[in-house]
Amino acid sequence: SHDDSLDRVSTGKGKIYDYTYDELLQFDFGVKHNKKFKGLKILKFEEVLKKFAGQVIMNVHIKTHDFVSEYNADDLRKIVALIEKYDCEQYVYFMCGNKNFMRLAREIAPDITRCMGAGDDGWNIVENAIEYDCKKVQLFKGFFNKEMIDKAHENGIICNVFWADESEEAVEFLKMGVDTILTNDYLLIANAVKKYKENK
After folding, report:
1. Interacting residues of 196 by C-beta distance below 8 A, sequence separation 6+
2. CA 95/CA 81 separation, integer angstroms
3. Residues of the chain below pLDDT 50
4. Which three-class secondary structure string do you get for the chain?
5. What is the predicted pLDDT for the residue at 18?
6. CB atoms < 10 A from the CB of 145, how many?
7. What are the residues facing 115 on neighbouring strands?
8. Looking at residue 6, what is its pLDDT?
């Protein structure tokens, strides 16, 4: 979701890490964003891997309490172990705006693709991606321009954008050179992308 509804549960109180998993199961994670997502429940990472292993590329967004904290190396090793258990190393990539996480991921799991997030340094996302050997960047709407996309491409970096839920906006991003559009409305945006490519 493009707002903080994955950080803040549907009650609007507290952060997701303030609750146990059993407590989180009581919340509706979809209705806050849109009525058509009503009833969406939180899943464990392993459940997602088990369901989609080998079928889709997964953007594994690692969240930290802020953009400078060190990430727990043992927690990352557990995540990597699950990815390896389901033979998904080529089907996932780590996305995070925390440079310390990127350093750790490069050390612990160098073969899993890294995607630099905007963090608190959105306008330098491409430079940060180059520094941490990231193969992707996840540009944040309102904090990028065509020059940044061009520089990323010159360095072999794929450009995601977070986010577009309207067809016209998605097409504008494609015209700028964005490679992948993250969205809350897949069908709408997939159809817009398809039409744009057919008419190109």
Report:
1. 170, 171, 174
2. 17
3. 1-11
4. CCCCCCCECCCCCCEHHHCCHHHHCCCCCCCCCCHHHCCCCCCCHHHHHHHHCCCCCEEEECCCCCCCCCCCHHHHHHHHHHHHHCCCCCCEEEEECCHHHHHHHHHHCCCCEEEEECCCCHHHHHHHHHHCCCCEEEEECCCCCHHHHHHHHHCCCEEEEECCCCHHHHHHHHHHCCCEEECCCHHHHHHHHHHHHHHC
5. 87
6. 10
7. 95, 136
8. 46
